[in-house]
Specification:
The protein is 69% helix and 0% strand. The protein has 337 residues and is mainly alpha-helical.
Length: 337
């Protein structure tokens, strides 16, 4: 759930200088961590069961992608009624960016779902090609290396090219996503061995702090060297940070801990992630509208607040409202079933 909060924080206004950039660099572990978790829980050594899990996850993700695309189309139309934006969204459906790089119209955060669907279909193809589990994992090792090389080239391209040759859109796609899903398979396959390795928690804590600082420092150095904004989804330290956090949770049996935070994360994290941008849209339209992601709008606020808008439009408020609505949607879904 922490990753869900951090992931949402990347898209919501943060008024404190430098805090958004610092937390933003660390928060970039959110999506890789989600993919790693998905791979861990979807993997099964039984080939038939593994294939069934992939099919179920693909179907569920496709439904959510459709539902939330329609929801965001409605929210965008009601809030902004921007004909140009609607046309651009519809044109995207016929573009290379949509069909290969899973850029989603109207709902920017839904790229995660589409990238996950593409990753699952890619993995299903590998299962079809490979006759044994040994061959499957050999292919995974090679493809993980290739995918992470692409991911890191994207992150560090500003060191080699004056103008980034890869647009930020191509860094948030299935090519940078499937390696973490496969890493989840590998960790699940060697779970018992990993849990037996005697590593003190204090060492893992130190590594988490070191890699967190290194992620923020890498962004700072790249900006200083290149003098340009860095369009990266993460760095070498980000990959290591995700793995260390996952290993820590695995070794300390945190997955089954019955805490309020874990319960919220298990039941609502996906909905919270998909809802937070829509909540932010609506709040901005009512009370701010001068800021939304990285865009400025010429609309006047529908309601003028007697206090500074950042007390209402911030990561914590948006997250809290998203949890409430996610809980409500889950209750409706269960009642229908």
């Amino acid at each position: 759930m922490y990753c869900c909060f951090f992931g949402g924080g990347l898209h919501v206004y943060t008024p404190i200088p430098y805090l958004r950039e610092i937390l933003g660099d660390i928060a970039r572990i959110a999506v890789p961590f989600f993919f790693l978790c998905s791979g861990f829980f979807i993997y099964s050594p039984d080939r038939t069961e593994f294939d069934k899990k992939i099919n179920r996850a693909t179907k569920k993700s496709a439904k959510l992608l459709l539902y939330f695309t329609l929801l965001y189309f409605f929210v965008n139309t009601i809030c902004w009624f921007d004909i140009r934006q609607i046309k651009e969204g519809l044109q995207l459906l016929a573009s290379w960016d949509f069909w290969f790089f899973n850029s989603t119209p109207f709902c920017p955060v839904a790229w995660y779902l589409m990238a996950y669907i593409y990753s699952l279909l890619f993995i299903k193809l590998l299962l079809f090609i490979s006759r044994t589990r040994h061959v499957f994992f050999k292919l995974c090792y090679v493809l993980i290396f290739a995918g992470l090389c692409y991911w890191l080239f994207f992150a560090y391209q500003s060191l080699f090219f004056h103008n980034n040759i890869l647009h930020w859109r191509y860094g948030t796609c299935w090519i940078t996503s499937y390696p973490f899903v496969m890493l989840g398979f590998i960790i699940k396959n060697y779970q018992k061995i990993i849990q037996k390795i005697n590593v003190k928690n204090s060492i893992l804590y130190c590594l988490i702090i070191i890699f967190s600082i290194a992620s923020a420092f890498a962004h700072y150095v790249l900006k200083k060297i290149t003098g340009n904004p860095v369009d990266g989804t993460g760095y070498i330290s980000t990959i290591l940070l995700v793995l260390v956090i996952f290993v820590y949770l695995l070794k300390n049996n945190q997955w089954g801990a019955r805490t309020v935070w874990n319960t919220i994360g298990k039941k609502y994290s996906l909905y919270v992630y998909l809802l937070h941008a829509a909540i932010n849209y609506i709040l901005c339209r009512f009370f701010l509208v001068k800021w939304d992601f990285q865009h400025y709008f010429s609309f006047e606020p529908l309601i003028n607040l007697p206090f500074s808008y950042f007390w209402l439009i911030n990561s914590f408020t948006v997250f809290f409202i998203s949890v409430i609505i996610a809980k409500w949607l889950t209750a409706i879904k269960l009642s229908v079933q």
